[in-house]
Specification:
The protein has 177 residues and is an alpha+beta fold. It folds into two domains: 46 residues; 112 residues, Ctag/Cox11 (Ctag/Cox11 (Pfam 04442), Sandwich). The chain has one helix and nine strands, in the order H-E-E-E-E-E-E-E-E-E. It has a five-stranded mixed sheet, with no helix packed on it. It has a four-stranded antiparallel sheet with strand order 2-4-8-6, with no helix packed on it. The radius of gyration is 25 Å and the shape is elongated. The N and C termini lie far apart (61 Å).
């Protein structure tokens, strides 16, 4: 009698554990799309992609924004990277293009990905990038040099207390990530 109760109890525990395992497997499988949706909604860890720009944005000729363009390379890449214009002044709403230059100093093919950062942090929501080398990985043959454009505009809705902003791009070796 006691063995039957123990056996029944063990079977119930086994059933519960199997159901729990199936639920946890399904949860783990669904976690990636849930996380992607969460990131999309909150705006964190958003992959870089071109912004859509309304055709009726007007240039604010009454304001000038000082833009500093910073360029960095992390260890692992034998690249030189620089902005051809480290400082510019522009009107919010005006479509602007700046050029960067990257050079592979090594004799080997290297693959890099540029990651942007912004200062002040809230500036990111007012920057509308149409074309940027940061949207895709860059491949450079040994001793190759490329000039890469960034086309963007600063939303005229940028707060009046923001006068100077910085866009910093850092290239990382893709093989290290």
């Amino acid at each position: 009698m006691k063995q039957d109760v123990t056996k029944t109890s063990n079977i119930e525990i086994l059933k519960k554990l199997l159901i729990f395992s199936v639920i946890m497997f399904c949860f783990g499988y669904a976690l990636v799309p849930i996380y992607k949706k969460f990131c999309e909604v909150t705006g964190i860890y958003e992959l870089q992609r071109p912004d859509t720009i309304s055709k009726n944005i007007e240039v604010d000729n009454t304001r000038l924004i000082n833009l500093q363009l910073d360029a960095n390379v992390r260890s692992g890449l034998s690249w030189k990277f620089r902005s051809l214009e480290p400082h510019i002044r522009l009107h919010p709403g005006k479509l602007t293009e700046v050029m960067y230059e990257i050079s592979n100093e090594s004799d080997e093919l290297q693959l890099g990905q540029a990651i942007p950062s912004y200062s002040p942090k809230n500036f990111e929501r007012y920057l509308k990038k149409i074309e940027c080398f940061c949207f895709s990985q860059q491949e450079l043959q040994g001793k190759e040099t490329k000039q890469l454009p960034v086309r963007f505009l600063i939303d005229p809705e940028i707060p009046d207390d923001i006068h100077t902003v910085t866009i910093s791009y850092t290239f990382f070796n893709v093989k290290d990530n």
